[in-house]
Amino acid sequence: MNSTHRFISYLVFSFLFSTSLIGQSFQSFEGKMVYSVEVIHPETKKPKFISLMTIYANDTLVRTESESTNFGIQIVIKHLTHRKQYLLIEANSKKYAIQQPAPKDTNSTKYILRNKCGGKKIGGIKSKKIEISSKMYPEAQICYYSKKYSPHFLELFPGIKGLPTEYFLMTEDGLIKYTLREITPTKLSPTLFTFTKDYTKISLNDFIDLLSK
């Protein structure tokens, strides 16, 4: 698998939907969340800031903006009720909206979650400690989550009982740390969850084939 295929696979994995939580209620939210993104040095374990990830969300729609060296800014727009999403990217001076209907519980990597005593405030909100282990991690990671907000805004760890506020993902560039910097309730424009006509709709397989050619 070449670097382009690995990168696209990582993007898809990062934004796939996880199993829904039954019987849990969370505070309704509309507004903006900002996470810092840092790469962890494999030897010193020190984090190095690389970018920001911004999430605009309400109870049914989520727009996630992130950055990579390969494709610049990527935007993912998800409809939580209809379970559909579009990945917006620019490649070869053209704009593409990669359509991704999301099946239930598509995460191929199984995570083991262990609640731990203790917690701290992250991004101004109270967060509980949790240990997350996976075959993708070199070792188990201590993460944090808020029971106040729904995990559906990120949908990364099936079974987690709240919004991850500090967590780790393994990529081809190494272990990446995400930390919530701010969470701001505010009224959002409906246009944030749409895209313009200059984006070409395309399936993921067709997009990979296009880049390969």
Notes on the protein architecture:
The longest helix has 13 residues. This protein has two helices and twelve strands. The radius of gyration is 17 Å and the shape is globular. The N terminus is likely disordered. The chain is mostly beta strands. A twelve-stranded mixed beta sheet has the order 7-8-9-10-11-1-2-3-4-5-6-12.
Fill in the keyword field for this structure:
mainly beta; globular; 12 strands; twelve-stranded mixed sheet; 2 helices; 213 residues
Gyration radius from CA atoms, angstroms: 17 Å
Shape: globular
- Total DSSP E strands: 12
Count, helices: 2
Structural class: mainly beta
Question: How much strand?
Answer: over 45%
Provide the succession of SSEs. HEEEEEEEEEEEEH
Helix content: 10-25%
Low-confidence stretches: 3-10, 12-23
Mean pLDDT: 85
- Main sheet overview: 12 strands, mixed
Spatial arrangement of strands, main beta sheet: 7-8-9-10-11-1-2-3-4-5-6-12
How many angstroms separate the termini? Answer: 15 Å
Quick structural summary:
This protein is mainly beta and about 210 residues long.
Layout: helices, strands, pairs:
Layout: H1 3-15, E1 31-40, E2 47-57, E3 61-68, E4 72-79, E5 84-91, E6 94-99, E7 112-122, E8 125-133, E9 141-146, E10 163-171, E11 174-185, E12 199-203, H2 204-212
